[in-house]
Amino acid sequence: MIISQSQNDEQTRVTKHEAGHYIVNRAFGYVPTTISLTYNKVTYGYSGGCEVTYYTIYQKRRDLVDFCKKRCIILLSGSVAGALNSATNKVDIIKAWKDFNSETGLNDKIKYDVIMNFYINFRFGYIKKHKIYNPIKYFNEEFMKEAVKMVEENLKFINGIGNRLLSEINRQLPTNGDVVLDYTDFNKMPSITKEFGKGFPI
What global pTM score does this model have? Predict the structure, then answer.
């Protein structure tokens, strides 16, 4: 399969996108079971997914608020990782927001908007007056800062997963059209298991 520069750039973006979701999940203590990538031979584009089942015990309202915050950061982390500048190892925040609000980040954005509304209602729903004038704008910026911080702090792990996905794309996609890595693949990566422990789905 001959890969053009634009296709190569898209491969890098989508692999980092899914790697970002994976690593930020792990940093929060959640264990994704698979990362999947699909190549569309008609549009020459890629779609991906990072599958996670969240098992969380909510003893207090605060627990639910914290979970909603983490999920928002996780959903942002894909576009954030995809906007990493390879020359500076820094995130282009404008590019991250543009990606998140485009068709590329549509699935993440739909979930994010729902969970953000839950977050604000669970956090402020019982308070008639609070000091934040525009809570959605305020928390969008706060969660983006958190996502950027976590992605940049875990850059080597995101690059490690991204490179593994790229190698699997080059090996599998010419014949299969799909790439699927599961927790057993990630557990074979020493740097991942050393930092986050072995991940096994419940």
Answer: 0.88
